[in-house]
Design a protein that fits this description.
Blueprint lengths: L2 H8 L26 H15 L5 H17 L4 E5 L3 H13 L7 E5 L3
Parallel strand pairs: 1-2
């Protein structure tokens, strides 16, 4: 499902949807990950260097940050499925930071295998 369609759904949350997160936070710089728009630039620069290509990582990461912002402004219940990997744990904490003003909306499904 494309990100544009998901963003349209965010207004009503009339049906559940899945959001795959695009950034593996287990590698690369994360010091400024919650500092707003600049975090997407830093992460995109890192991924371009690591992957050695000109893909537009910044656009993908900015869309993901915008989606986090929309989730924070909505009243929807959010379920995060995660395992014990560093990437999963960092992503869970990153999303929890964005939902810090309404932590009761964040639910987790912890996978053990």
């Amino acid at each position: 499902m494309c990100i544009t369609r998901q963003l349209r759904w965010l207004g009503s949350f009339s049906e559940p949807f899945r959001l795959p997160l695009r950034d593996d936070l287990a590698v690369g710089p994360i010091r400024t990950i919650d500092d707003g728009d600049d975090s997407a630039v830093a992460r995109a620069t890192f991924w371009r260097q690591v992957m050695n290509n000109a893909q537009d990582y910044e656009d993908d990461l900015e869309k993901q940050l915008a989606l986090f912002g929309q989730l924070a402004c909505s009243d929807a219940q959010i379920v995060v499925w995660h395992g014990q990997s560093a990437a999963d744990q960092l992503t869970l904490r990153h999303l929890a930071y964005h939902l810090r003003n309404a932590p009761q909306r964040l639910n987790e499904a912890k996978l053990t295998q």
